[in-house]
Write the structure tokens for this entry.
Amino acid sequence: MNYDEILKKEFRDIAIIEYGIIKGNSTIVFIKAGQDGSIYGYENKYLTIAKKLNEKYGYTVISSSNPFDGNNPLDHDMNVVKEYCVNNNIEDYKVYYMGQSNGARIGISWGYQHPEIKKLLLINSPIFINWHILKNGIIESNNQEMILVYGDKDNSYRYVELIKPLLTENKKLVIVNGADHNFVNMLDEFIDLPIKYFK
């Protein structure tokens, strides 16, 4: 089992970001791994998610590594999505964004700047790092559906009260009982999240 295509793109002369692609229809699920994470993830979790989403819904899935350097890679990532669509004659596309940990933080912080992103599934984003930026991202994402997921064993769970006043009809908070930051021993539950929320 592997991706249909793997791309390597230079990011600001300081890092190479790898993208694994499963080809499908005009709904693009973009997965951003956590800090220093690969396109595969622990026990191939991102590849497994990509295959399941493609088989169940026909979606195209692009999984991105995350050689974290403190800068915003989302403009670069969305250019990769656009380039993929141009090269594959996909004219009218929408993006569902999934991020874990630092990948979730990136989605919250800058996702609202990209109207092609219609849904964001954001898992265990650190709340205590640059809260003002995260708060602004949640507030500004008016036209996007946002699902913020926290395990009740994650370090940020104690701060979810900060998020609650920002919730609206299209911004939801989901708590997963028993889950820690990396969903250790709960890999199936992690894999099921995008299957459930990206219908």
Observations:
- The chain is about 30% helix and 25% strand.
- The chain has a mean pLDDT of 95.
